[in-house]
């Protein structure tokens, strides 16, 4: 993607892929609840937004590039008739950055209409696309969502909805949380390892499926539960409930731990854990593992805030050596020493090195009185390329900090994500070929420490094998060409399309 001057916009940090939603109501049009829910999920994708509804007779669709607020006008929402629908906000992962990959993907075929919203990334989409293309399917995009739609459409010609979804799940391999409309029936599907989140909520007059519970809160609904890994949930057409089908059983899950650390809203509940509390507890653990006694501890806003608050709390109870504090020892002072310019978008153009170096000054302004003459611990959730951390340490030292210690509320990112997070390549990741001490020197910090993977598992109350830790271990829970796996897993053979004679 280039701007008008031919420069390549540079995205900083990591970006989440997508947010999905599906709603089935009793009589009321679904378009506005879907629109508000997408607003609540805007942090999960800013490239495009779309809604597909069905009024019992026909499907209606409106999909635009841009933010939710810009993508829909009053007239667009008025035209989206029907009490059932799905929505999507997208940040491009698989597929090109243009409207052909914006979602929901919709298609009409012999046995009805289909809409699909996908959060995640398939690792065997090309194999299935080749097989379907050889069988005569014509594709309009290079995205993996269209592959799922075509596979499902083909199955639906021969079998009922539940069996069709089951057989598609048996062929696709990778990460997916889907909301699907089949005419005016709304479905939710979570991949057998539950990599991406998806939850069910109850509204006053219907039910909702959403990537995060914050979308349910926005509609004054109640979180019912997470969709289980390998489960198909079918919302009833009258808005009176839902049916559940456990289509695939899997021994272990592979929840993306970065949802808790970085992507999800802090006010969302994912896999039964409030994200804000998880981040605070990760911060507490960070103090236990690598606390350092400094005059102040401060977050990088907003990403480091919950970690820093937990870290400072733990620091007020015990010393860095793990001993209880004396009554007159207040521990480390928590301070907001960095102010964020909220009007700097996630993507901005920085064509020259000089401008890139100014980026952190554009985003963050230090409060000198909090920093000058002090020893400082600054807390963030990740280091990707190291550029921002280097600038940040320099900024704090320029402000008069005597020492700058950096603490990170997650393990070091050493490898890319194939499950849909835009995280940078191995060559760009500073930790892919540098030790923690080397990174400390590269960013000119007085000390640097990351949280351990064991601490992440302990805080999230999961066995390590039930988490995806691919980007911090280099071993993945899916069968990805050229990469190691952390479990016994292999992609399905999609060459032979004999439908199993089961069920
Ligand atoms: S590789 Fe990292 S970011 Fe990607 S799904 Fe796994 S834990 Fe999440």
Structure in words:
- There is one protein chain.
- The protein folds into 2 domains: 17-254, Aminohydrolase, N-terminal nucleophile (Ntn) domain (Glutamine Phosphoribosylpyrophosphate, subunit 1, domain 1); 274-461, 3-Layer(aba) Sandwich (Rossmann fold), CATH 3.40.50.
- The model is unreliable at 1-12 (pLDDT under 50).
- The chain has a 7-stranded antiparallel beta sheet with strand order 4-3-5-2-11-10-12.
- It starts with 9 loop residues before the first strand and ends in an 18-residue tail after the last strand.
- It has 16 helices and 28 strands.
- It has 503 residues and is an alpha+beta fold.
- Helix content is 28%, strand content 26%.
- Bound molecules: iron/sulfur cluster.
- Iron/sulfur cluster binds next to helix 8 and helix 16.
Q: Which key terms come to mind for this protein?
A:
alpha+beta; Rossmann fold; 2 domains; seven-stranded antiparallel β-sheet; six-stranded antiparallel β-sheet; 16 helices; 28 strands; disordered N terminus; binds iron/sulfur cluster
Strands of the widest sheet, in order across it, are 4-3-5-2-11-10-12
Q: How many helices?
A: 16
CATH superfamily of the largest domain: Aminohydrolase, N-terminal nucleophile (Ntn) domain
Shape: elongated
Instruction: Report the uncertain regions.
Output: 1-12
Bound molecules: iron/sulfur cluster
Give the proportion of residues in helices: 25-40%
Total number of strands: 28
User: Any guess at the CATH architecture of the largest domain?
Assistant: 4-Layer Sandwich
- Summing up helix and strand content along with how strands pair, one would put the structural category as alpha+beta
């Amino acid at each position: 993607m280039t701007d008008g001057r031919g420069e390549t916009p540079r995205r900083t940090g990591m970006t989440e892929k997508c947010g999905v939603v599906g709603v089935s109501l009793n009589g009321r049009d679904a378009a506005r609840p879907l629109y508000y829910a997408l607003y609540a999920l805007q942090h999960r994708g800013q490239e495009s937004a779309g809604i597909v509804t069905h009024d019992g007779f026909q499907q209606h669709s409106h999909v635009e590039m841009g933010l939710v607020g810009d993508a829909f006008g009053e007239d667009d929402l008025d035209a989206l008739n029907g009490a059932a629908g799905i929505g999507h906000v997208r940040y491009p992962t698989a597929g090109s950055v243009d409207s052909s990959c914006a979602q929901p993907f919709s298609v009409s075929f012999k046995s009805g209409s289909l809409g699909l919203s996908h959060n995640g990334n398939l690792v065997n989409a090309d194999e299935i696309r080749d097989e379907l293309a050889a069988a005569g399917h014509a594709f309009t995009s290079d995205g993996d969502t269209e592959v799922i739609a075509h596979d499902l459409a083909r199955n639906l010609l021969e079998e009922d909805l539940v069996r069709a979804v089951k057989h598609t799940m048996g062929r696709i391999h990778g990460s997916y949380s889907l909301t699907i409309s089949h005419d005016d029936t709304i479905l939710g599907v979570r991949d057998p390892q539950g990599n991406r989140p998806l939850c069910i909520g109850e509204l006053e007059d219907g039910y909702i499926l959403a990537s995060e519970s914050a979308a349910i809160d926005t509609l004054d609904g109640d979180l019912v539960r997470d969709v289980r890994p390998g489960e198909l949930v079918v919302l009833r057409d009258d808005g009176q409930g839902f049916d559940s089908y456990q289509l695939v059983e899997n021994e272990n899950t592979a929840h993306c731990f970065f949802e808790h650390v970085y992507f999800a809203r802090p006010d969302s509940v994912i896999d039964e854990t409030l994200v804000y509390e998880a981040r605070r507890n990760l911060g507490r653990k960070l103090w236990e593992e690598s606390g350092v006694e400094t005059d102040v501890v401060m977050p990088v806003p907003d990403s480091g805030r919950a970690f820093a608050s937990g870290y400072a709390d733990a620091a007020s109870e015990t010393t860095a050596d793990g001993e209880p504090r004396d009554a007159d020892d207040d521990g480390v002072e928590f301070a907001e020493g960095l102010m964020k310019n909220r009007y700097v978008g996630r993507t901005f153009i920085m064509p020259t090195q000089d401008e890139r170096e100014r980026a952190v000054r554009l985003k963050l302004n230090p409060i000198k009185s909090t920093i000058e003459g002090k020893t400082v611990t600054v807390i963030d959730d990740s280091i990707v390329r190291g550029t921002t951390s280097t600038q940040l340490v320099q900024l704090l030292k320029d402000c008069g900090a005597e020492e700058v210690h950096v603490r990170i509320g997650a393990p070091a990112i050493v490898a890319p994500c194939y499950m849909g997070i835009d995280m940078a390549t191995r060559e760009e990741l500073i930790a892919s070929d540098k030790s923690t001490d080397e990174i400390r020197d590269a960013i000119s910090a007085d000390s640097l420490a990351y949280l351990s993977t064991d601490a992440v598992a302990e805080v999230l109350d999961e066995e390590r094998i039930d988490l995806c830790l691919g980007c911090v271990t280099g071993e993945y829970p899916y069968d990805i060409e050229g990469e190691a796996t952390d479990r016994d897993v292999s992609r399905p053979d999609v060459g032979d399309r004999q439908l199993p004679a089961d069920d």
